[in-house]
Write a sequence for this structure.
């Protein structure tokens, strides 16, 4: 049910805000994610520590990177990378995402990261 027709289920709004007054674009914990995105990711809209953070780890043996982030719900995630060259553009990495108990993981092989010795990554969550 969505009595105020704002796209947020009343049950979710009442659970987190005890009312229907916080709209889908609001960001009460000021973590940069709107209530709509927090709902879609299964995060707590009142806890900035529950925000979407990309953790990058490198396997010293295989030289592969593991990217992981919290996500209680499945969604559409896009991983992008670019070299540290200021004129470089972001490119989408076609990698599978695995959900394991509230965490999403993706493995980047050394071949996928070999185009530039120094690069940065970003994670996009795409709302349907």
């Amino acid at each position: 049910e969505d009595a105020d027709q704002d796209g947020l289920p009343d049950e979710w709004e009442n659970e987190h805000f005890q009312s229907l007054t916080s709209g889908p674009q609001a960001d009460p914990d000021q973590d940069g994610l709107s209530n709509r995105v927090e709902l879609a990711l299964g995060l707590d809209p009142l806890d900035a520590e529950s925000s979407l953070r990309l953790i990058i780890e490198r396997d010293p043996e295989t030289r592969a990177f593991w990217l992981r982030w919290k996500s209680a719900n499945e969604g559409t995630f896009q991983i992008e990378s670019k070299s540290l060259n200021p004129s470089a553009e972001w490119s989408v990495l076609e990698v599978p995402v695995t959900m394991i108990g509230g965490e999403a993981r993706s493995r980047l092989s050394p071949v996928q990261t070999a185009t530039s010795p120094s690069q940065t990554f970003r994670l996009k969550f795409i709302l349907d």
